[in-house]
Design goal:
By secondary structure, the chain is of the alpha+beta class. It has 2 domains: 6-75; 78-164, no CATH class. It is built from 3 helices and 6 strands; from the N terminus they run ααβββββαβ. A hairpin with a 2-residue loop joins strand 1 and strand 2. The structure holds zinc ion (2 copies). Residues 87, 89-90, 93, 103, 105, 108, 110 line the site of one zinc ion.
Amino acid sequence: MADEHRDPTPAELRALAADVEGLEQRILDVRARLRANEETRDTAFRLDDAAENVRRGREALELTVGDLIRTRTARDPKLCGVPWGVCPEHGNTLRGSGGRTWCTDPACSRSWGYDKLGTACGEPVTHTVTDAAGASFLACRGHAMDAEKRLEGGTVTALPSTTN
Ligand SMILES: [Zn+2]
Ligand SMILES: [Zn+2]
Protein backbone atom coordinates (compact mmCIF):
# COMPACT_ATOMS: atom_id res chain seq x y z
CA MET A 1 0.00 0.00 0.00
CA ALA A 2 2.71 2.49 0.94
CA ASP A 3 4.56 3.38 -2.22
CA GLU A 4 7.51 5.65 -1.59
CA HIS A 5 7.44 6.96 -5.14
CA ARG A 6 3.92 8.28 -4.87
CA ASP A 7 3.02 11.70 -3.53
CA PRO A 8 2.16 11.64 0.15
CA THR A 9 -1.60 11.40 0.60
CA PRO A 10 -3.71 13.35 3.07
CA ALA A 11 -4.44 10.02 4.79
CA GLU A 12 -0.72 9.46 5.27
CA LEU A 13 -0.26 12.91 6.80
CA ARG A 14 -3.31 12.41 9.01
CA ALA A 15 -1.89 9.13 10.28
CA LEU A 16 1.39 10.88 11.02
CA ALA A 17 -0.43 13.70 12.83
CA ALA A 18 -2.31 11.09 14.89
CA ASP A 19 0.99 9.44 15.83
CA VAL A 20 2.39 12.81 16.88
CA GLU A 21 -0.73 13.47 18.95
CA GLY A 22 -0.16 10.14 20.66
CA LEU A 23 3.39 11.26 21.51
CA GLU A 24 2.08 14.55 22.87
CA GLN A 25 -0.31 12.67 25.16
CA ARG A 26 2.46 10.36 26.34
CA ILE A 27 4.70 13.31 27.19
CA LEU A 28 1.87 15.00 29.11
CA ASP A 29 1.17 11.76 30.92
CA VAL A 30 4.82 11.30 31.93
CA ARG A 31 4.96 14.92 33.03
CA ALA A 32 1.87 14.52 35.21
CA ARG A 33 3.30 11.37 36.79
CA LEU A 34 6.66 13.04 37.50
CA ARG A 35 4.88 16.01 39.04
CA ALA A 36 2.68 13.84 41.20
CA ASN A 37 5.69 12.56 43.12
CA GLU A 38 7.57 14.92 45.41
CA GLU A 39 10.93 13.28 44.67
CA THR A 40 10.64 13.65 40.88
CA ARG A 41 8.58 16.85 40.69
CA ASP A 42 11.60 19.05 39.85
CA THR A 43 12.60 16.92 36.88
CA ALA A 44 9.40 17.60 34.93
CA PHE A 45 10.04 21.21 33.94
CA ARG A 46 11.44 20.54 30.45
CA LEU A 47 8.44 18.51 29.46
CA ASP A 48 6.14 21.53 29.17
CA ASP A 49 8.34 22.74 26.33
CA ALA A 50 8.63 19.25 24.89
CA ALA A 51 4.86 18.84 24.77
CA GLU A 52 4.45 22.31 23.30
CA ASN A 53 6.99 21.60 20.54
CA VAL A 54 5.32 18.32 19.68
CA ARG A 55 1.94 20.04 19.65
CA ARG A 56 3.28 22.61 17.18
CA GLY A 57 4.55 19.79 14.99
CA ARG A 58 1.11 18.20 15.00
CA GLU A 59 -0.56 21.50 14.13
CA ALA A 60 1.83 22.00 11.21
CA LEU A 61 0.98 18.51 9.94
CA GLU A 62 -2.75 19.14 10.26
CA LEU A 63 -2.54 22.45 8.42
CA THR A 64 -0.53 20.69 5.73
CA VAL A 65 -3.31 18.09 5.38
CA GLY A 66 -5.78 20.90 4.60
CA ASP A 67 -3.41 22.49 2.07
CA LEU A 68 -2.68 19.16 0.45
CA ILE A 69 -6.39 18.33 0.12
CA ARG A 70 -7.05 21.69 -1.51
CA THR A 71 -4.15 21.23 -3.94
CA ARG A 72 -4.96 17.64 -4.83
CA THR A 73 -8.68 18.23 -5.17
CA ALA A 74 -8.09 21.13 -7.52
CA ARG A 75 -5.96 19.06 -9.89
CA ASP A 76 -7.46 15.57 -9.61
CA PRO A 77 -10.87 14.88 -11.20
CA LYS A 78 -11.09 11.60 -9.25
CA LEU A 79 -11.38 13.51 -5.96
CA CYS A 80 -14.64 15.04 -4.79
CA GLY A 81 -14.54 18.81 -5.25
CA VAL A 82 -17.47 19.76 -3.01
CA PRO A 83 -16.13 22.66 -0.92
CA TRP A 84 -17.15 21.26 2.48
CA GLY A 85 -16.32 18.00 4.20
CA VAL A 86 -18.44 14.93 5.06
CA CYS A 87 -17.89 11.72 6.95
CA PRO A 88 -16.85 9.24 4.23
CA GLU A 89 -19.27 6.70 5.68
CA HIS A 90 -22.16 8.76 7.10
CA GLY A 91 -22.33 11.87 4.94
CA ASN A 92 -23.51 15.17 6.32
CA THR A 93 -22.98 14.35 10.00
CA LEU A 94 -19.93 16.42 10.90
CA ARG A 95 -19.54 18.95 13.69
CA GLY A 96 -16.51 21.11 14.21
CA SER A 97 -15.00 23.22 16.94
CA GLY A 98 -11.58 24.63 17.73
CA GLY A 99 -9.99 23.40 14.52
CA ARG A 100 -11.19 19.81 15.04
CA THR A 101 -14.01 17.95 13.33
CA TRP A 102 -15.88 14.81 14.30
CA CYS A 103 -18.72 12.63 13.02
CA THR A 104 -21.87 12.80 15.15
CA ASP A 105 -23.16 9.39 14.07
CA PRO A 106 -23.24 7.34 17.31
CA ALA A 107 -21.73 4.35 15.50
CA CYS A 108 -18.81 6.39 14.18
CA SER A 109 -15.56 7.18 15.95
CA ARG A 110 -14.03 9.22 13.14
CA SER A 111 -12.54 12.60 13.95
CA TRP A 112 -10.16 14.90 12.16
CA GLY A 113 -7.57 17.26 13.61
CA TYR A 114 -8.42 20.08 11.22
CA ASP A 115 -11.45 22.01 10.00
CA LYS A 116 -12.77 19.29 7.68
CA LEU A 117 -16.16 20.98 7.43
CA GLY A 118 -14.52 24.07 5.95
CA THR A 119 -12.11 22.20 3.66
CA ALA A 120 -12.74 20.92 0.14
CA CYS A 121 -13.86 17.30 0.42
CA GLY A 122 -11.05 15.44 -1.38
CA GLU A 123 -12.54 11.94 -0.84
CA PRO A 124 -12.42 9.65 -3.91
CA VAL A 125 -15.42 10.13 -6.22
CA THR A 126 -17.80 7.16 -6.33
CA HIS A 127 -21.08 8.55 -7.69
CA THR A 128 -22.54 10.85 -10.30
CA VAL A 129 -25.11 13.26 -8.93
CA THR A 130 -27.55 14.71 -11.48
CA ASP A 131 -30.09 17.32 -10.51
CA ALA A 132 -33.60 17.68 -11.93
CA ALA A 133 -32.34 20.12 -14.57
CA GLY A 134 -29.82 17.57 -15.83
CA ALA A 135 -26.68 19.21 -14.47
CA SER A 136 -24.34 16.63 -13.00
CA PHE A 137 -21.17 16.41 -10.99
CA LEU A 138 -19.02 13.66 -9.51
CA ALA A 139 -19.17 13.17 -5.77
CA CYS A 140 -17.80 10.91 -3.05
CA ARG A 141 -19.99 8.42 -1.20
CA GLY A 142 -20.68 10.84 1.68
CA HIS A 143 -21.70 13.69 -0.60
CA ALA A 144 -23.73 11.33 -2.79
CA MET A 145 -25.64 10.18 0.32
CA ASP A 146 -26.27 13.77 1.29
CA ALA A 147 -27.41 14.67 -2.24
CA GLU A 148 -29.73 11.66 -2.31
CA LYS A 149 -31.52 13.01 0.76
CA ARG A 150 -31.92 16.52 -0.57
CA LEU A 151 -32.32 16.14 -4.33
CA GLU A 152 -35.82 16.42 -5.62
CA GLY A 153 -36.20 14.89 -9.05
CA GLY A 154 -32.50 14.24 -9.47
CA THR A 155 -30.58 10.97 -9.53
CA VAL A 156 -27.54 9.57 -7.80
CA THR A 157 -25.79 6.70 -9.58
CA ALA A 158 -22.70 4.76 -8.61
CA LEU A 159 -19.77 5.01 -10.99
CA PRO A 160 -19.00 1.77 -12.89
CA SER A 161 -15.66 1.34 -11.14
CA THR A 162 -15.21 2.72 -7.66
CA THR A 163 -11.98 0.89 -7.01
CA ASN A 164 -9.88 4.00 -7.40
ZN1 LIG B 1 -19.25 8.87 10.46
ZN1 LIG C 1 -17.26 14.62 -1.12
